[in-house]
Design a protein that fits this description.
The chain has 195 residues and is α/β, with parallel strands linked by helices. Strands 1-4-3-2 form a 4-stranded mixed β-sheet, with helices on one face. Helix 1 packs across helix 4. The protein is rod-shaped.
Amino acid sequence: MSETPIGGDSFPAGVEILEVHVAELRQLFNAIDPAPIRERDLDPRIEEFIVDWGRELPRDMPPALLVRLAQPDDAPEVVGLVRDAVHGFFTGRAIAARRRLRRLFQSGRTSLAIGFAVLVLFTIAAQLIGGRSNVEGFGRVLQESLAIGGWVAMWRPLQIFLYDWWPIRADARVFERLADMPVRVTTGAQVHTSR
């Protein structure tokens, strides 16, 4: 049996093709999602498979998705919606990731303002305690605790601005690439795939 294109995009030269094999198109989508096909979420396992592949793909290699059906689908109009559904799904994921990044930066700015105020107050208090010439025992412990506490208050904003933001931005970029990839649906056996 040869491969028979059913619908979707043509693949330009130089794309990396990911094949997803399903018995029927409805297996692509989350079974509990009641939305119409065009707005339906992908099945979580298929989403994870596609996203993991997208993360491993080199940046200069454009992605393409080939959905291979075991047998022709009964509803050809549904096949035409698959491309739109995949694009819409990953566009939604990219928008959500960008929104999450904006919220993280807002939280980071608030945390920075609070952390910096606490650091200043605790540093002033530690200097006042340390300004006494005979600081020993409990006074010395209190002075050191205030200095440490001030820097601990800066932990969360530093974590946000140094480490937490870039994985979210990387995910947004992957989702944006996947939202733009050509999608084609075929049925039958593979004859030849050039990569």
